[in-house]
Write a structure and sequence with these properties.
mainly alpha, elongated, transmembrane
């Protein structure tokens, strides 16, 4: 009787895990915007908090060199290019 109970619990566990994974992937593909918007918000928040700390705090956390400025410009330009590419898409 014990192996049958283990077999049943294994199936219940697999059903729960696989169903949740399937629904997450399905939701991701159906509503990609709701996946990208929160991630974009977190990224923008991190960048703005770093810039606020750089410009307004008395003790800087790290040294900010020209490589960082170049990287910031490249990231901003690539964001604008990607935004223009996806602007015409119908969601």
């Amino acid at each position: 009787m014990f192996p049958i109970i283990k077999f049943g619990w294994a199936h219940v566990t697999l059903l729960i895990v696989v169903t949740q994974s399937h629904l997450i992937i399905h939701n991701l593909f159906e509503g990609m915007i709701w996946f990208l918007v929160p991630i974009s918000c977190v990224i923008c928040n991190n960048i703005m908090s770093y810039m606020f700390g750089f410009f307004f705090e008395r003790t800087p956390l790290i040294k900010f060199g020209w490589a960082h400025v170049t990287l910031l410009i490249v990231v901003t330009q690539s964001h604008l290019i990607i935004h223009n590419l996806f602007e015409g898409m119908i969601w």
